[in-house]
Amino acid sequence: MSVEVERKFVCDAGMWKRLEEIGAVCIGQREIHDQYFDTPDFELTLRDTWLRKREDSWELKCPPAVGMTQETSGEGLEEASLCSRYKEITSLPEIQSRVKELLMHCAGGSLNADPLPGPLVTVGQVSHEEPGGPEGVGDPWPGELNLRCFAEFTTARRSFTLQEEGVQIDLDQADFGYTVGEIEVLVQEGQEVGSALEKIERAARRLGLTRNLRVEGKMDVYLQRFCPEHYVKLQRAHIL
Ligand code: V4E
Which of 84, 158, 175 is the best mutation target for the ligand 1 pocket, counting ligand atoms within 8 Å of the beta carbon and taking the most? Predict the structure, then answer.
């Protein structure tokens, strides 16, 4: 199982040129369709656990084991506070059992709430079926656990690699009108994250990213625009 260590950055108009100048190699571009799921009471995301259907595959992102979190690893690098790290689980049986276990431990679990499909809404230039139910997902299991789709969007992604650093750089343009970059390193679970943070810091410096500010991800912006109540709850819980 791997842990994704990543730093987001503001992707300005000069970024392409800078990537070229530092010798980053474009390794592809693609469109990614994501659907995110949670219970009506946000029991997963309030535990910083993100269940996603990306194209036809299920993925779960959750905080890594103690020892790989920034609070406990004592890396002492400024980079540590700018980088997020999440364990990525891609085996469906494991995702289902972790989600079930998490929901069972939620006080007053909401397995009896009635999921309702939402109306059609327009987001920017793109018509979106407002997320609101497990319908159309094609799998019965999310509905059986009272999970509904709360966010759905498509991202045009261009990926680059800085081979000597072992980092991947993605430039993402979401269909609701937000563009963001990220520098990413994958680490095997249990391994030291310090060297990943150093690689990310070196890549950030080479890209001229000197402003050490937290940059909003696609989900921050999506929820602020379309699900403000959910966003406020996650902010109050210091998740976003
Ligand atoms: C919102 C969120 C998660 C869902 C995935 O978010 P993100 O990594 O931004 O999406 P994406 O498309 O780049 O996924 P990838 O292709 O890299 O797998 S996982 C954790 N969060 C919370 C979160 C946070 N607390 N802070 C920041 C800056 N981003 C996300």
Answer: 84
